[in-house]
Specification:
- It is built from three helices and 27 strands.
- By secondary structure, the chain is mainly beta.
- The protein has two domains: 2-112 and 292-322, no CATH class; 122-256, no CATH class.
- The longest helix has 7 residues, at 310-316.
- It is globular and about 50 Å long.
- The two termini are 34 Å apart.
């Protein structure tokens, strides 16, 4: 295993923290997860324009049986970072080449607060069919407990707003262009009741690729985010080709080989984490969009942050203008305070 080691100084829980290796933000990592990150054998995780984009941060405690980060006989172009209470015992990188640094004891970072309010009013068409027919669906809202199964190939454009609880099955190919958002599930609602499943190949095209028509005028302004479902598990049986923006889910599972390009961060909000079962070729490019991604609440700059090098963060962080998010919604963001 080819790695470089660094021990970081604990600062404070935030989406941006100061360490003796420099300031780091949630949005500096290609993959960020509350739970474990498991990459299959021979996985290649690479930054497209910057090797650092192929970096991983996990807040999982980890153990020998269930490492915070695992990758068998693969390659990671960026850093691998874990948080306090973790040790090298929570990493399983045997046979993996890590071009960046393995950072143990990185300060805890909270996940960004998500606010899907701007999208709700744009989902103007109710889709309440249990077996939707083939066709094109524009700016749809799926009421709670609809539990639709799309057996035919469909085209979805604009906003797809999922009210919870719901299980969504796509059993055929999906042509998706726009953004998928979902409510947080009710308290006590099981993961199985809040699930999005893709049986065949899937590509998420960004909102900028929507037709320039009145149906999508306001949606097209929200570039940089494609999935805001932090309370839903998302599973792909076959290939996930590309994701044109930030992807936020509770858990992400890929059953078969993944050959994907992500034009934004993968943010995993649940303890189950990310699990790519087989060989994966994952490319991440964080250079396409700038500023706080739509749907994320900017983090106010505080005096403690400025005292710990916040001005340097403002100069170097990818999100222009210092716009980062701060946890305020306990259903999605307080998990590191507990």
């Amino acid at each position: 295993m080819k790695v470089r080691m660094a021990i970081c100084v604990i600062a404070f829980a935030s989406t941006t923290v100061a360490t003796n290796a420099g300031e780091i933000s949630v949005f500096d990592f290609g993959i960020v997860s509350k739970g474990p990150v498991a990459l299959g054998m021979n996985t290649d995780l690479s930054g497209v324009t910057d090797p650092a984009d192929g970096s991983i941060y996990s807040a999982a405690i980890g153990s020998l049986a269930n490492p915070a980060v695992s990758c068998g006989s693969g390659h990671i172009s960026g850093d691998v970072s874990v948080s306090p209470s973790n040790t090298l015992l929570s990493l399983d990188l045997a046979g993996t080449t890590v071009d960046g640094t393995v950072r143990v004891d990185v300060p805890l970072m909270t996940m960004p607060t998500i606010d899907i309010t701007p999208y709700k009013s744009l989902a103007t068409t109710v889709m309440n069919l249990a077996r939707p027919p083939a066709g094109t669906y524009k700016n749809i809202r799926i009421p709670a407990n609809t539990n639709p199964t799309f057996n035919s190939s469909v085209t979805i454009q604009g906003v797809m707003y999922i009210q919870a609880p719901n299980t969504i099955h796509f059993n055929n190919n999906v042509n998706f262009t726009g953004v998928m958002v979902a409510d947080d599930p009710p308290t006590g609602s099981p993961d199985s009741a809040n699930y999005i499943y893709f049986n065949n190949n899937m590509t998420f095209n960004g909102v900028e690729q929507l037709p320039d028509t009145s149906d999508f005028t306001n949606v097209r302004k929200l570039q940089g985010t494609v999935i805001l479902c932090p309370g839903f598990t998302m599973e792909f049986k076959n290939n996930l080709t590309s994701v044109d923006g930030v992807m936020a889910v509770k858990s992400l599972i890929a059953r078969n080989n993944i050959d994907s390009t992500f034009m934004g961060n993968l943010l995993i909000y649940g303890e189950a984490g990310l699990d790519f079962k087989n060989i994966s070729d994952v490319n991440i490019d964080l250079s396409t969009y700038s500023g706080t991604p739509p749907g994320f609440v900017p983090e106010p700059i505080t005096l403690p942050l400025l005292a710990m090098g916040g001005l340097a963060i403002l100069r170097k962080r990818r999100c222009a203008g210092g716009n980062q998010a701060t946890p305020s919604n306990p259903s999605t963001c307080d998990w590191l305070r507990q």
